[in-house]
Amino acid sequence: MAGYFPTAVDHPYADTLNAARKVVFSRTLKTADWANTTIAAGDTAEEIDRLRRGGDGHIMVSGGVSFWRSLVRLDLIDEFRITLFPYLAGEGTRLFDDVGKSRQLDRVSSIAWSNGTIELEYRRHR
């Protein structure tokens, strides 16, 4: 994302993402060149708690499956927004494998777009 969005001119989210505060969770990166980006290398749960206390409580996560699964295992996700694209890639990584205990989700919304993409929104049942 950092290699694309800073110079993207025709993407509808480019201005929003470039201006937004961003935190990259990494144990190897030491610096981030994308504007408004910091590195979080500490304990994931503690870093998320710090971010929640320092902002409005809403955190959007975009990242790899292993990071996402770690957030699910730690029960740190309150709302799931999943986009399904109409593309079969053969074998792949299952999104909900290895996430620990089962959790009930309540559907908030679903949108089917004309290109076949479906957006699903679920909230953790608490």
Helix and strand topology:
Elements lengths: L13 H6 L2 E4 L11 E4 L3 H11 L10 H9 L5 E6 L20 E8 L5 E7 L2
Parallel strand pairs: 1-2
Antiparallel strand pairs: 3-5, 4-5
Written account of the structure:
By secondary structure, the chain is α+β, with helices and mostly antiparallel strands. It is built from three helices and five strands, in the order αββααβββ. The protein has helices at 14-19, 44-54, 65-73; strands at 22-25, 37-40, 79-84, 105-112, 118-124. Strands 3-5-4 form a three-stranded antiparallel sheet, with no helix packed on it. A two-stranded parallel sheet has the order 1-2. It is globular, with a radius of gyration of 16 Å. The relative contact order is 0.13. The mean pLDDT is 89.
Beta-strand content: 15-25%
Cα-based radius of gyration, to the nearest Å: 16 Å
Q: How many helices in DSSP terms?
A: 3
* Global mean pLDDT: 89
* Class derived from helix and strand content: alpha+beta
Tell me the number of strands.
Answer: 5
Shape: globular
**N- to C-terminal distance:** 33 Å
Which strands sit side by side, in order, in the main sheet?
3-5-4
Uncertain regions spanning at least 5 consecutive residues: none
Q: Into which percent range does the helicity of residues fall?
A: 10-25%
Q: How do the SSEs run, as a string of H and E?
A: HEEHHEEE
Summarize the main sheet. Answer: 3 strands, antiparallel
